[in-house]
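ok so I'm stuck.
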Amino acid sequence: MLQFILAVLLVAFIVTYAATPVIIKMAKRKGIVGKDVHKPGRPEVAELGGLAIAAGIVIALLFAVAVSSFSSLQSVFNADINVLVILAILCLVLIVEMVGMVDDILGIPQRIKLLLPIVAALPLMAVKVSALHVFTIPFIGAIDLVTPAVYLFVLIPIGVMATTNVTNTFAGYNGQEAGIGAVAAFALLMVSLLKGDILAASLSAALLGAQIAFLKFNWYPAKVFPDDVGTLLIGAMIGAISIVGGFEVLGAILLLPHIADFFLFKMPNRLPHAVVQVSLRNGKLHPKGRPLELSQFIMDRAGGISERNLVQVYVGLEMLLAAAVIMIAAFA
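replied:
not stuck anymore, here's the structure
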């Protein structure tokens, strides 16, 4: 099992690592660039980097399908996973990437984009992943009110919609999305291994490998932005893995910073309709006016903070949450 999981992770890493420079060159050649507003001079940075993450995940999951489909590969890796669910995840990735591409290039009204991830949940509903397990809460157990029908037709679409949107809005600083996402994916991988769930582990490994490779180009100072094709995908995968593995509550714990940012700042301040303004003074970021997002709140409380240190704070916080989630999975 571990040999197979490591192979999936390496495939995702290699593909994303190879694809990212290609996308950077293509984006710059086509003029698909954005201003890095938190740097002196606002340099232009390539966009659509999330396509490289998607490429790594897709090829890694196709590799997983091949292992399960050919006896010669099964004998090497000693792994057999639910191919139908993997194909559903691939459909989810395709739908999310289509939404992200349209939004990045043409723009989608916020209210519509808020609901579109429900469409991405349809493949998971179609293969009835609710049959894999029952909805449980750590240290409490199964919740009788959450019937298979409620789980399938209510919780799955809401879960995918929620995780996709909160990761999409909790973004904007070099390495933030992929850095936090990589830690979350590592935690989900550890939880999957503790539970002996090879399917959820393979999905987590694909997400982890792709994000680690992408961070080489997205960490401060970023050479490429993930854009919506990246942020939406990271959120959708975290949601899908949590659903497939049956540890939805643990997945929600990993997204607590995103949830806090969304409900305490983004919704009350009607973002993105309000404009978040940040000034750069002596290498540190300062909010202009009252804080409109969690990042500005941290800037305000710290009396200014560098972009690199801000993201390190988030990654450090996510590591603490990851440790808590792994401990809960081990002892619940």
